[in-house]
Specification:
It is built from 13 helices and 9 strands. By secondary structure, it is an alpha/beta fold. The chain has a 7-stranded mixed sheet with strand order 3-2-1-4-5-9-6, sandwiched between helices.
Length: 254
Amino acid sequence: MTAAERPAGAPVYERIGRTYARTRRADRRIAARITDGLGAARSVLNIGAGTGNYEPRDRSVVALEPSSVMLEQRVPGSAPAVRGSCEAVPFADATFDAAMAILTMHHWLDLEAGIAEMQRVSARQVVLAFEPNMLVDFWLMDYFPEMRDLPTERRAPRVDRLVELLGGTASVEPVPVPADCTDGFGGAFWNRPERYLEPEVQRNTSNLAQLEPSVLARGNARLRADLDSGAWDRRYGSLRALDEYEMGYRLIVA
């Protein structure tokens, strides 16, 4: 099977995230930025849609998702969903006013093909991604350095590369992560380190969920020890007082 034939992201999310919807709920502030990015678009394709977070409710939306595990967790009343790959979108040219891809491109097996498909089926593209060289320095890597070597993390595209592939003139806007972010993605608990020790959070955060059990247990022990001793707070406790944190997440609109 070629990369163009394989549903991007499916191998990971068929194994993890079976309780994804419990900790991955759209954050209203991030949702507002995405909605602004969609502009006047009335029809939207959500590529790598997962359980449906960030799909606008006031527009005609179709979701495209490779993982049956994710599709099964979409709540009643969600937008209609199709199982399929970002690299072979099953819609005709210019079907949608906009296509959105939210924290998904590091799972794509063929980035260039996926972006070409976005451009083929839509006039406007809205992407939420992260700058790899910033997230790789996140304090969580102190405890789980093995995350740096995961295929999904190594495959994460630089923002300037995304802008280039999207035509070179896309706008780029920083998306700070709120202190009380409700969406438990990789950097969401930057000021709530205790949350990273919760088994459900770990199961539903792809970079933690992909670690070997022994690696995860070793990192958990280090983090728990530093929290118990106060070492984490001595190094990073100032983060607890911030309202938001700039971690390298970016909204890209082309």
